[in-house]
Amino acid sequence: MTERIEGHGGELALAALRAYGVREMFTLSGGHVFPLYDAAHKTGFPLYDVRHEQSAVFAAEAVAKLQRRPGLAVLTAGPGVTNGISGLTSAYFNASPVLVMGGRAPQFRWGSGSLQEMDHLPLVAPVTKHAETVFSADDIPRAVAAALTTALTPHRGPVFLDFPLEAIFSTGDADLPAGPALDPVEADPDEVAKAAGLIAGAQRPVVIAGSDVYAGDAVAALRAAAEALDVPVFTNGMGRGALPPEHPLAFAKARRVALKGADVVVVVGTPLDFRLSFGDFGDATVVHIVDAPSQRATHVQPAVAPAGDLRAILTTLAGYTGDRADHTDWVAQLRTAEDAAKARDAEEMAAETDPIRPARVYGELRKVLARDAITIGDGGDFVSYAGRYLEPAQPGTWLDPGPYGCLGTGMGYAMGARVTHPDRQICVLMGDGAAGFSLMDVESLVRQKLPVVMVVGNNGIWGLEKHPMRAMYGYDVAADLQPELRYDQVVTALGGAGETVAKAADLGPALQRAFDAGVPYLVNVITDPADAYPRSSNLA
């Protein structure tokens, strides 16, 4: 029997949100959305506030990524919404099911110049799957349910709703939504069978698995398919950790060798974008497995591109019973290349040089990070080293900005990760450039007792810009920051703690103190500005 609910607009919205598994709200205070706060306060619904709206959206995205369910950000009208658009856009590129609810000036006097009167929809529509203004309280539960269903339907992504003042502050009644009921997208069985035959019959196949494998809860199916077909696996994005580093088919360092020698490249759950040479793998046959037909590449023509539920597709691949080639020698060849690369990396991660090389930072981090630690990359140059030297041991433990490459995710992602995993290590890896985007939200973490560790690679430059510009023009401009700036003192002033490290031998003890501190703690590492812009990275 359908349950009837009544209340003001905020109460109606919150009831619908709960039905879809939303369990917290990230926001920055604004009068246009007071009824949502009232509903949360009266029912004990967790509410976390930030110092910049982008952090609220990034926090909601972290929840959506890590928990595979909707994340919620509530933003006030006008500048509140526009400040959150970079977060919305990142969620759009990352296929994260985020709902942003915005306030809106009153409709009954629209055009009269009310405070923060602005039509948000033309701005957010290009970077959302659905954007709608809800004009009556009675219609709010319906709109919330429709938006969240759209957000959760593959290919997933963010949605937006805003509410004029008279709608959200008014009372109404409506049927309580039943919650998500999503039918899986079924792939063409002939395409899946063709993909299986290509992989099994290849002499030198390679799988590259991306974020949608995690988002689609297909990690176990990926492992089963890799093991059944004996195919080496590389990962990117939130696909990292899908196979633990010790798995005999898990590879990270030998990607260049693998892609140069492969005769079949299977890309699962990630686009054929700049991170994967736009799908150009030389003479190799390309199989592109995606979660929805909309994700099929249009700039290249794969041999086959099954589109549908990734768990079902990969499970079918695992059950393939046809003829297959022996991949033993190919896997052994890649293992030799992988081990050689790991040996080179081990030397770099143990470097005793002062100034400190970024590789040494990650060498020390590997000693203190737990297998289930959540590592968050927010930066360019410094974080590219993280992709190269850190190997997540479990799925759902790596967060980076994704293909949109937006800086400033760090504190929002940290908040969402800490809320999701209150008992795990949360470690944010930031360049000193990226630190300028969101470090003020350390105050939000301190005030709400959300401890995280921040490691800043401080080389005093925009590393991904300075060196290439000098190579191109013989000079650089707008690429310098204050050298050896005390970002740790900023965190201390905001109520956290931290220290600056300038010698490699001091790194290990400093990181241990950070993880033992129980408060937001920043380790400010003075790194060598000459050791930047690595030519190869596994961040992709």
Automatic annotation (TrEMBL):
Entry keyword Magnesium: no
Q: What is the lineage of its organism?
A: Bacteria, Bacillati, Actinomycetota, Actinomycetes, Micromonosporales
Q: Name one GO molecular function term.
A: acetolactate synthase activity
Q: Does the keyword ATP-binding apply?
A: no
Tell me where in this chain the Thiamine pyrophosphate enzyme central domain is found.
192-317
**GO terms for CC?**
acetolactate synthase complex
Keywords carried by this UniProt record: Thiamine pyrophosphate
- Recorded source organism is Micromonospora maris
User: Per its record, how is this protein called by name?
Assistant: Acetolactate synthase
GO biological process terms, alphabetically, are: isoleucine biosynthetic process; L-valine biosynthetic process
**Limits of the Thiamine pyrophosphate enzyme TPP-binding domain:** 378-525
The protein's required cofactor(s) are namely: thiamine diphosphate
Q: Which InterPro entries does the record associate with it? A: DHS-like_NAD/FAD-binding_dom, THDP-binding, Thiamin_PyroP_enz_cen_dom, Thiamin_PyroP_enz_TPP-bd_dom, TPP_enz, TPP_enzyme_TPP-bd
